[in-house]
UniProtKB/TrEMBL annotation:
Keywords: Signal
Protein name: Amidohydrolase
Record's keyword annotation contains Signal: yes
Signal peptide: 1-20
Amino acid sequence: MLFRYCCGLLALLLSLPLSAQPLFDSHLHYSAEDARHFDPLAIVQWLDKNMIPYAAVTGTPAVHVSKLYQAVPERIVPLLSIYRQRRDKSTWTKDETVIPYLKKELERGHWGGIGELHLFAADRHSQVFKEVIALASARQLPLLIHADPAVIDKLYEIAPKQRVIWAHASTFPYPDLVADYLQRYPHLSVDVSMRDRRIAPDGVIDDDWYELFVMYPDRFMIGVDTYSTSRWRSFDFAVRAIRHWLAQLPEDVAQQLAFVNAAKFYKKPLSLKANTSF
Ligand SMILES: [Zn+2]
């Protein structure tokens, strides 16, 4: 039986202890191998069990994310993967067939963003990357990007207003560097998925990360990043680790990272409907 959300306004929810507060997971994968083991209902049950009313989900190939979205459209932000198969991850920047594929998929109309794109500094001049940025900008879709800092510089040279989520707080996840980029690029947001051990070594939040979150409380999002089927199997544990360091932040900052920032970014309601059974 699915979890029943019986709370009213967000204010009410936010008065709950953080361990009981809703999370917006901004970085999930639901790919072919995951779909072989877990149907959309199993995924929704995981989200319910962990009080995650909303999630942004990508996957390869895209069809599985579409199915998950169709099962609970109000709860899933489907992100269009540019990979049709796993190996595309390392070749897509040179693959011109990506663009007609994306155009065709985007015609379906339900996609809430494009990504996750993986690329290194050396790939930043890729013509395919340029065209992906143009597609996203024209449709006002955000990009989820796992990339080196130089890629972000290149992207904002091309499209200064493009909304971007920089996955895992960059490939160089140092608070000073992240702060510099947040200051430079107002349309850049950061997800800190898979960075729990850096943020809170031995479970205690690091001073530099603490200051970074307090300085830019409206620019960060959390996520589990289910990059493999085994990651899905340890989903509950991963969520607990995130909640553990969130609870060490000032309450209002923690609420922004946990839920509010992603809800605003993806235009989801900040309040959960009374007596809604998802
Ligand atoms: Zn990922």
